[in-house]
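Ticket #397: bound-state structure for magnesium ion.
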Amino acid sequence: MNMAVMNQSEAPSVVTRDRVICFVNDEESAAALRKGLDGSNLVIRRGTIRNAIRMLETDTELFALVTDISGIDDPFVELERLASVCPPDVRVALIGDSREINFYRELIETGITEYLPRPLTRDMVLELLRPKLIGGVVPAQPDRGGHVVSICGAQGGAGATSIAINLALQLAETTKAKVALLDLHLQNGETAVMLGVRPGPGLRIALENPMRADTLFLERAAIEINDRVSLIAADEELDAQLNITEAGVRHVLGLLRQRFNYVVVDVPVPFPPSIYPVISLSRQVLVLLEAEVTGLRNAYALRNAVTNIAGKDRVFTLLNRADRAGGLPRATIVKALGAEPDMVIPDLGKGMTQAVNLGIPALKHVSKLRRHLTPIVREITGVGVKRKGRLRRLLGL
Ligand SMILES: Nc1ncnc2c1ncn2[C@@H]1O[C@H](COP(=O)(O)OP(=O)(O)OP(=O)(O)O)[C@@H](O)[C@H]1O
Ligand SMILES: [Mg+2]
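RESOLUTION: The complex was predicted; output attached.
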């Protein structure tokens, strides 16, 4: 994105996104940044990458970030934390003490825009940093898009929407990241009802006609559920003739992946071909079923459908309302699935349905739900994966 264009923008909500925020500790570097990045919407603060992380936990309205890693014992650990709260479209440059070429290479591999050794000079900033950070040149970066998780029910009422909503909320709470909840049931979607909000026409327009969905799409179509979670949903008439295109789906998902670290999608089943890109871009596809004959039969078919689109390693079977009275015994389920379910959530009683009727997320009403979602959040965020692998994944390499 070009800064000159952004500065001329009329929309006040977009203007703040042109900020270039710097956290540096030495006066020379601060002065060099002030001169070298002159003309941009520059904010210079004292601090290091740790202060930047703290800021990003609550404020992500920025275009680029420059931050100091000098004096930090393991900058890769801090970078990993930064990556988990920094929107993927924010350009990140680092400054530090090291002049080691291997260190530089490793940093660049993580997806940062540039690294410069301290102290900075105005010429270094002008020649090496400015063009990549705020110039029109988009750095040749690997895909840093947000992490997509799809949720689909093998039978009606399996709990897909309940799990999608509460997973999105818990993911944001645990990681402090920005999470989009995208409901692709445009006509009878339940996410908005369950969250007690009313969607507008923005999502349908964007999905039918991608040329009309620009960066303002998000300002118009995303409903803030809290500081970190936004809902993107529709509420179209049941007799509306929708013409959702694959190009529209790709475009909307692309826009969401630029702004949000995670995109949790409530996916209609069977999958219309136009939404295949959502499945193929998902890191995890959760196939939900209840302990019923219909669920078992459909789960098998749905797992195959997902495998054909996205590959085997993406599918996870989630048995919901396990051990519910009258349900099939576990042994029958394991036999029919050919394996233990990957994830299990027990029946959590009538509080779940009460939450729906109150229009509040079940997490606020059913205390046990959080504990049962924790392993799923862990699977998605990859806690416990060894350092380098996780770092690469978080930055989307
Ligand atoms: N683990 C659970 N324990 C008890 N009740 C649950 C559980 N999970 C979901 N429910 C309840 O089951 C009902 C159906 O859930 P939900 O609407 O999320 O399912 P769905 O798969 O999205 O349905 P649809 O096919 O209509 O989209 C809701 O009343 C919800 O509160
Ligand atoms: Mg649903």
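RESOLUTION NOTES: Residues 1-15, 384-397 have pLDDT under 50 and may be disordered.
TICKET STATUS: resolved
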